[in-house]
Amino acid sequence: MSSTSLEYDNVISKAKALYVKKMKDYGTSWRIMRLPSLTDQIFIKANRIRSIQESGENLVGEDVAGEFVAMINYGIMALIQCELGTKNTDEIDTELAEQLYDKHIKQVKGLMMKKNHDYGEAWREMRVSSMTDVILMKLRRLKQIEDNKGKTIVSEGVEGSYTDIINYSVFCLIQMGMGKEQ
Questions:
Q1: Distance between CA atoms of 78 and 1, rounded to whole angstroms?
Q2: CB-based contacts of 35: which residues, under 8 Å, 6+ apart?
Q3: Tens digits of residue pLDDT in 2-38
Q4: What is the pTM of this model?
Q5: Which of 62, 133, 141, 179 could in theory staple to 174 by disulfide, Cβ–Cβ 3.0 to 4.6 A?
Q6: Residue 88 or residue 114, greater confidence
Q7: What pLDDT does 182 receive?
Q8: How many CB atoms sit inside 10 A of residue 64's CB?
Q9: pLDDT of amino acid 86
Q10: Nearest Cα residue to 135 out of 177, 156, 176, 164
């Protein structure tokens, strides 16, 4: 399992590097987004991946790996929004945004390591297309929870779904070879 931790960190390093570069271009303009909007951004990415997987055609030309990276970053943004709230959507300092990224990815990875132990790394035997479907299912669940104004009876809240989406996206990227050191 030590290779999983290293591969995970390699994927996150690449995702965070993009997050930081985008902040240099756009600041933290994403702070204006409510959770359903972030959920929809993740949905757009996952749906594009599934469409390409099914059709075998990629007319836009942007790689699928980039879409998984985007889902990781949008997921982290959503977790930050859960923490800070969406009432005061003023931009935040980029240094704070990086610290919050690190804080949330540490929590997300911590949960992954526990589940990874208990499930015996079953994800390594899954197809990327199956994990894409799991992400899409999690998004449908998220949308239902959001439509129910965050109320659930026995289910985890939105944070758990975002966490799972981030982890499945990392797993897909590891399966696609992005977890290797370069």
A1: 28
A2: 78, 81, 82, 86, 146, 158
A3: 699 999 999 999 999 999 999 999 999 999 999 999 9
A4: 0.94
A5: 179
A6: 114
A7: 57
A8: 19
A9: 85
A10: 164
Distance CA 29, CA 144 (A): 26
- For tokens 């939105």, the residue is 158
Whether residue 81 is predicted with pLDDT greater than 80 in this model: the reply is: yes
User: Which two tokens mark 132?
Assistant: 């894409």
Q: Which of 6, 16, 22 is nearest to 166 (CA)?
A: 16
Query: What is d(CA 82, CA 103) in angstroms, rounded to the nearest whole number?
Result: 13
